[in-house]
Amino acid sequence: MSDTNTIISPENLIYKKTDVLLDNTMHYCPGCSHGTVHKLIAEVIDELGIQETTIGIAPVGCSVLAYNYIDIDWQEAAHGRAPALATAVKRLMPEKNVFSYQGDGDLAAIGTAETIHACNRGENIVMIFINNGIYGMTGGQMAPTTLPGMPASTCPAGRDVSHDGAPIKISELLAQLPGTCYVTRQAVHTAANVRKAKKAIRKAFENQQANKGTSLIEVVSTCNSGWKMSPVQANKWMEEHMFSYYPLGDLKDE
Amino acid sequence: MAKAKGAIVVDTEKCKGCGVCVSTCPTQVINLAADVNGKGYHYAYMGNPDACIGCANCGVICPDTCITVYRAKPVKA
Ligand SMILES: Cc1ncc(C[n+]2csc(CCOP(=O)(O)OP(=O)(O)O)c2C)c(N)n1
Ligand code: SF4
Ligand code: SF4
Predict the structure, then answer these.
(1) What CATH number belongs to B5-72?
(2) Where is the Thiamine pyrophosphate enzyme TPP-binding domain positioned along the sequence (chain A) (predicted)?
C-alpha cells in the first residue's frame, strides 16, 4: 500500500506554483518553453521580493500575452521595440526592475536595431530572449535563427545558406558590445537545465540592481507546433541539432 | 538510512498532457491517463506512486506549473 496520502501534507511541501504566477491557463501549446521560462521569471521575482517594483515589456509573438500570466506591471511593445521601451521605462524610473521578454523573430529580426543599440548603450535592463529558431505565432516561418537545413513553412526544403545566409548568433554578437555585462545561453528541456536557467535569470536581475548594464539571457527553446513534433521529440531534436550551433553556457560575465 | 518518499498532486484540469514530466521522472512514476480532461488532454497522474522519491523534477519542468511536490522527512532509525 502506498502512503502517498500521508505524504501529501503542508509540512512536506517542497515545490508549488509561486503566487507571482497568476492562475490563468496559459494559451501556449502543450510543452512550449515559453511557459517554463515565465515560471522561472515569476519565481525569481518572488524570491527577490520585487513583485511591486518590476515592470515587464511584452513582445509581439506567441508571448504577446505574457502580461496575463505574471502578476507584475507590464507594457506592450510594438514588434521588436521592447528594448527601446525598456530603455524609456528604466530611464524614467531607475528604481524599478525592468526586463524585456522577446522571441527570436522579435529580438533578432524586426527588432535587431533596437536590440543592438540598447545593448551597446549598456541600458541597465534584463533581456530574456526565447530562441526557438522560428516565427511561432504566425505559422512557423524561417527566422534569422533557423538552422541550416532546418525546414520551416517558408523554406520547406530547409534553410539554404547560399540563399538565406547563415543563422545569426545574436548572443555572440551582443557579447562583443561593451554595454553588456552578462550574456548567457541556457535551455529549459531538463530539470537540471531549468534550475541553471533560473540561477542565470536571478543573476541578471541582481546585475540590474547593481547598475552593471545590460544582461541578456538567451534560452534555446522549442516550438514543437512549428517544428511539427511532440514536445518530448522537440526537446530531443533541440539537444541533437540546436546545441551544436547554439552552445549553452556563459558568453560574458563581468 | 531511510529512503526519501515523495508524492505529487497534478492539477489535472490545467494539465495539457505534454508529457515532459513523464520523460524527466527518474523513477518512472508518471503516466498519461487513458482518460481525458475537460480540454481533451490526456493528463498526467501518478501511475506508480510507490516509486516517487520527491525529487521535484516534474514540478520544476512543467511548463504550465501543474504539479505540486511533497517529500516526507526521512524518519531516523
Ligand atoms: C510590425 C509587424 N510585423 C509583422 C508582424 C507579424 N508577426 C507577429 S508575431 C511574428 C513573429 C514572432 O516570432 P518570434 O519573435 O520568434 O516569437 P514566437 O512566436 O516564436 O514566440 C510576426 C512576424 C507584426 N505583428 N507586426
Ligand atoms: S506556436 Fe510554438 S512558440 Fe507558439 S505557443 Fe506553440 S509551441 Fe510555443
Ligand atoms: S517528484 Fe521526482 S520521483 Fe516523484 S514523480 Fe516527480 S519526477 Fe518522479
Answers:
(1) 3.30.70.20
(2) 67-219
